[in-house]
Amino acid sequence: MKKITAIIIGGLMSLTASAQQRPINSLYMFDPLVINPAYAGTQVQLSATAIYRNQWVNFPGAPKTFTFSASSGFKQNRVGLGILAGNDQIGIHTENTLYLLYSYKLPISRFNSKSYLSFGLQGGFNELKSDFGKLTPRDQTDPYYGVVDRNMTWNFGGGLFLKHHAFYAGLSVPYVLNNRVINAKVFSSSARQYRYYYLTAGFTQKVSTNVKVTPSALIRFQEKAPLSFDLNLTTVFYNVVGLGASYRLDDSVVGLFELQLNENFHVGYASDFTTSALRRYSNSTHEIMVNYRIKIDRWHRGIECPSYY
Length: 309
What we know:
Layout: H1 2-18, E1 46-54, E2 64-74, E3 79-90, E4 93-107, E5 116-131, E6 148-164, E7 167-173, E8 196-203, E9 205-208, E10 211-222, E11 228-237, E12 241-248, E13 252-260, E14 265-274, E15 285-294, H2 297-300
Antiparallel strand pairs: 1-2, 1-15, 2-3, 3-4, 4-5, 5-6, 6-7, 7-8, 8-10, 9-10, 10-11, 11-12, 12-13, 13-14, 14-15
Signal peptide: 1-19
InterPro entries: PorP/SprF_Bacteroidetes
Keywords: Signal
């Protein structure tokens, strides 16, 4: 039984070490702060977003992720400040994160204030709890049984964000340090959270008076893991309703829906249809987003705030 338990734990550790480590959202294009700190303050006004993701429904131990972000522009929108917090649960692991974000914008066109290059930094901590007591070994004297490992690590990262007319692009490394995942001394683990590199790009094209399309792409590269990418296309009607689809390499096809309720509230929903071998056990993932924006005269007086689209 000890050997079986060790195999189970080894499998969990290898999953954490080489597979998805940072939570992946399907609605990240509506909250780029989750992948790039240089986006802080880009919406000028105070913008707060909450996203809940329930991945691989009915699959035991599947990920459940909640993220919250908020940012605002200051100093005539040359400076952006923000916060990013999250809770991620997968199997016996629960991770809480909290990061502070800073960005500085440089205009790249004297005649167009909407064209700029933003530099961003973030710093904070990850607190990972691994409760091996949730496993069910037959031998209650198993040395792994009942172990609860807590591991707090500090990290930092940075990014660039370019906005020029209707085009945007970003490059980021949000987490630079390859921190250890497990600290427990009862077994040896070399699992680490290897850094990610994100490259994004997209643009908005007006098709008619009341219709516009926004194609975009995200390339995701993690050290010691295969390259992954998303291809996205959203169509916006009357600047109120958006319908879209995404393709995630070797993983899923995603349907997107978004709605601007009023000048303050924006909501979104995504459903992932699994295309990998996991579809035999669960073929659905649900994600819900709520965004709230408000202009504060003391901070944003005389500055134009961009619309949702």
